[in-house]
Amino acid sequence: MTATPIRLLLVDDDPLVRAGLALMIGGAEDIEVVGEAADGAEADELVRRTRPDVVLMDIRMPSVDGITATRRLRARPDAPQVVVLTTFHADEQVLHALRAGAAGFVLKDTPPAEIVDAVRRVAAGDPVLSPAVTRQLMRHAAGTTADARQARARERLAVLNDREREVAVAVGRGLANAGIAAELFISVATVKAHVSRILAKLGLDNRVQIALLAYDAGLLEDDGH
């Protein structure tokens, strides 16, 4: 029996970009492009109508931009995963989109096979963001508000117990569940349970946001790895 295709919505204000994305992704048998939107407002309406699993979202658009649209979509009870499109690695707008709930980002000049892989990964619940790129983004965005942000982050993380804090740091370092389990001498199932509790306690959407909060709190700098 053939698996149900991943339902994908494309959001970009440039019709040529949308057409190119649709063409390159159209060859993947396990992905179905269910709609195209020119801005965040149109995306919100199309998500209601087409119920996509993943949204490939441009950041800079007129009317409603990708960051605002991501925040709105991730607040929905049936929220799709969001991957943002950008032209720069160290783009502060990408960091804002990740904080809004995006599961990762891809560059617009990324090879087609890698964009298809990113869609598949986020549909499966895996973030598409390496720890190195995460740190690059956060260093790029660090500024005069760093101390205040660290204080807020540490206050939020105070609700975690010691083991959950260890798991949060490991997530921030980019370890997968199996790596965390091996390092902390616990089962993969226990790691998954801890991650679920961390997300619930902190009101976060995904592992990327755990990593961002751990970085903001200075936990990754304190960590000896």
Features:
225 residues, single chain, Tscrpt_reg_LuxR_C, alpha/beta, transcription regulation
Summarize the helices and strands and which ones pair or pack.
Layout: E1 6-11, H1 15-26, E2 31-37, H2 40-50, E3 54-58, H3 66-74, E4 81-86, H4 92-99, E5 104-107, H5 112-123, H6 131-141, H7 146-157, H8 162-172, H9 177-184, H10 188-202, H11 207-216, H12 219-222
Parallel strand pairs: 1-2, 1-3, 3-4, 4-5
Helix pairs in contact: 2-3, 3-4, 6-11, 7-11, 8-10, 8-11, 9-10
Q: Could you walk me through the main structural features you see in this protein, from its secondary elements to its overall organization?
A:
This protein is of the alpha/beta class and 225 residues long. 55% of the residues lie in helices and 12% in strands. It has twelve helices and five strands. The protein has helices spanning 15-26, 40-50, 66-74, 92-99, 112-123, 131-141, 146-157, 162-172, 177-184, 188-202, 207-216, 219-222, and strands at 6-11, 31-37, 54-58, 81-86, 104-107. It has a five-stranded parallel sheet, sandwiched between helices. Helix 2 runs parallel beside helix 3, helix 3 (66-74) packs parallel to helix 4 (92-99) and helix 8 packs across helix 10. The radius of gyration is 18 Å and the shape is globular. The N and C termini lie far apart (45 Å). The model has no long low-confidence stretch (mean pLDDT 87).
Intertermini distance: 45 Å
The run of helices and strands is EHEHEHEHEHHHHHHHH
Mean pLDDT: 87
Helical residue percent band: 40-55%
Q: Show unreliable segments.
A: none
Strand element count:
5
Could you describe the largest sheet, including whether it forms a barrel? Answer: 5 strands, parallel
Strand content: 5-15%
* Class from secondary-structure proportions: alpha/beta
The gyration radius over C-alpha positions equals 18 Å
- Total helices: the number is 12
